[in-house]
Amino acid sequence: MTIARVALPVALDRSFDYWAPEGLALTRGSIVRVQLARRSIIGVVVAVTSESAVTRELLQPIDEVVSLPPLPDDVLALCEFVAGYYQQPLGMALGLAVPPLGVRRALRARAETAEPPPPIAETPLNDDQKAAVDAIRAAAGTFAAFLLQGVTGSGKTDVFLAAAGTAIARGGQVLLLVPEINLTPQLEARVHNALPRAQAVTLHSGLSDGERRAHWNAASTGAAQFVLGTRLAVFCTLPRLALVVVDEEHDTSYKQQDGVHYHARDVAVWRARSRNIPIVLSSATPSLESFARTRAERYRRLLLPRRADPRAKLPRISLVPNRGEGARDGISGPLWHAIGACLARGEQALVFVNRRGYAPSLKCSACGWQADCPRCSARLTMHRDPPGMQCHHCGHQEALSRACPKCGNVDLLPQGYGTQRLERTLTQAFPHARIMRVDRDSTRTKGAFAAMRTQVAEQAIDLLVGTQMLAKGHDFPRLTLVGVLGADNALYSADFRATERLAALLTQVGGRAGRADLAGAVIVQTDFPAHPVFTALETHDYDRFASDLLLEREAAQLPPVTHAALLLAEAHRRADVDAFLHHAHAAACALVEKSTDAVTVYSPVPAVLARRAGFERGQLVVQSANRANLQRFVARWREALVAPPGKRVRVSLDIDPASFC
Ligand code: ADP
Ligand code: ZN
Ligand code: ZN
């Protein structure tokens, strides 16, 4: 009898045996439907054998082989790597490679309806771009990792699209990963423009299940030559994959934080190596991980030091104090003045603040009470549109507080500035300006973001107020002024990557200004103008900043100099969290004593957000200078953790965590 060993997307480190009814064509990689605990679920066959440790009577049959191509060896190997490296059950990792099967029949892949590509005349590549394209082309058919590092507007996109064109002309497929769905429409347009004859499909969570399955199909049969997708697309079956590109490689949204933890950039590099093909990581502000690897000559760096459009200059940067002369409603005097002047010239301005809502907190002017989330150790954010108090950690909502529950005082003061408050302030100050707010609240409906972009491009908007949604990749020629508020918040953060992220964010937002013939200016409000992150921005010298930061990480023994794993425990009772982490800590220390692998085990501590959605949270970090040591250690440690003594504890292990908080 034929037995199929099936990996199922459940949180167990084992696969399940099923018998195959006569006539079912099964191979390793087949996608099948089976019963588990009387539920019908989709799994992947990891082995076909003739024996099972389970007695015949207890075995269940395979219900159906799904009519999709089986996952090929390279995708199976990729998922095995992810399961092993990130310490996740194999069935969960394989689940990432299976397209959605909610619909019975896939839609036919149709030509994507992107916005009509702007009629751009082919611009010949400049010398820096040509050199970069040549290097990537020359690496065809071998593994090579390139870091394409170019200032904002230097034409990185044209470089990787030119290299993609060659790969496709030679019969290959190209995978382009982008950090966000919002970036896909405009890139799609540029892809169609640059590669008019190639069939391109997108893969992201904004598609319906039917569309996603159709696009996956087109990619997995090789019909689609170009696949543009968000992090999940890294697992897509691509039989003729010849080039991988990771755009904005530093972006934190490549790290999946829940479910299966993985970093799509790192998984992409692994995939390129296993397929023996080149990979291009593109950024104006590379992650310290990639930066360090170019230093170690493991990645080759391709530099684009100038903006591609010869008319476009890098923007002028000014650092101004938050308060001081002329400051009002969170906006400094010089910024007020610059916005007024920009609008008077008929150009566009953007005010950036990384906080949605009206104000990050609400405080009683009499007794100092502040509105807290009942389920988290965090303040509630005040919203005006629609009015209410919201927790940005757990989603809790309540009515706007009218009076202080402690002393009855009705004089409650909003603290700090969110996008809604700035929108109101600016509307009052510039009643004739056409103002638009862009944040997660204002772009919730489908198509809202695209509509915003069209309006800005058509100059139906004078002034934008928004969060980091606006920071990336958008090209608005008449946008000449960018004001940045709240940048100092990152400097107070407990996250060791906060300044690295701030540098990337500021460079990105600043990069929105003056991309064409009009000169751009960036005004950053800060009370710490001497901080290296601002110096880097002022001098446009990211390398210097990154080198210094790398030295700091070295001194503090933090990633990427060391490798880390973070164990997070959550439970309703603090005592259960503590008991579990105590047990985990003791187990880790015992392992370290027995082994020669140099691993450091830190003491358990409460998480920075000590309570979230009613769960008490605690964590424990382990680290090693050697990745392989850490891997071996974590694998053994996990075995020791299987039976937590404190019941009802939710545990997750995060390898290469984005932060320790
Ligand atoms: P990046 O991705 O590096 O921020 P883009 O690829 O978006 O930059 O390019 C910025 C702008 O410069 C785009 O409008 C692009 O069409 C234009 N551009 C690219 N290469 C050239 C070139 N060689 N000459 C003139 N303009 C160019
Ligand atoms: Zn009060
Ligand atoms: Zn909450």
| Structural class by sheet pairing and helices | alpha/beta
pLDDT averaged over residues: 92
Q: For the largest beta sheet, what order do the strands appear in spatially?
A: 9-10-8-11-14-7-15
Specify the helix fraction band.
25-40%
Q: Ligands in the structure?
A: adenosine-5'-diphosphate, zinc ion
Q: How many helical stretches?
A: 16
Q: How large a portion of the residues is in β-strands, by DSSP E?
A: 15-25%
Tell me the CATH architecture of the largest domain.
3-Layer(aba) Sandwich
In CATH's first tier, which class of the largest domain applies? Alpha Beta
* End-to-end C-alpha gap: 52 Å
Using only C-alpha atoms, the radius of gyration works out to 26 Å
User: What is the makeup of the main sheet?
Assistant: 7 strands, parallel
- The overall number of domains is 4
Principal-axes shape call:
globular
Give the low-confidence spans. Answer: 109-119
| Number of E-state strands | 31
CATH homologous superfamily of the largest domain, by name? Answer: P-loop containing nucleotide triphosphate hydrolases
By CATH, the topology of the largest domain is: Rossmann fold
Describe what is shown at a glance.
The protein is α/β, with parallel strands linked by helices and 661 residues long.
Offer a few descriptive terms:
binds adenosine-5'-diphosphate, binds zinc ion, Rossmann fold, globular, 31 strands, 4 domains, alpha/beta, seven-stranded parallel sheet, six-stranded mixed sheet, GIY-YIG endonuclease, 661 residues
Describe this structure in words.
- By secondary structure, this protein is an alpha/beta fold.
- The protein has four domains: 3-72, GIY-YIG endonuclease, CATH 3.40.1440.60; 127-304, Rossmann fold, CATH 3.40.50; 316-359 and 416-552, P-loop containing nucleotide triphosphate hydrolases (Rossmann fold); 563-655, 2-Layer Sandwich (Alpha-Beta Plaits), CATH 3.30.70.600.
- The strands form seven sheets. The chain has a seven-stranded parallel β-sheet, sandwiched between helices. A six-stranded mixed β-sheet has the order 5-2-1-4-3-6.
- The longest helix is centred in the C-terminal third of the chain and has 21 residues, at 574-594.
- It is globular.
- Mean pLDDT is 92; it is low at 109-119.
- One zinc ion is lined by residues 373, 375-376, 378, 391, 393-394, 396.
- Adenosine-5'-diphosphate binds next to helix 4.
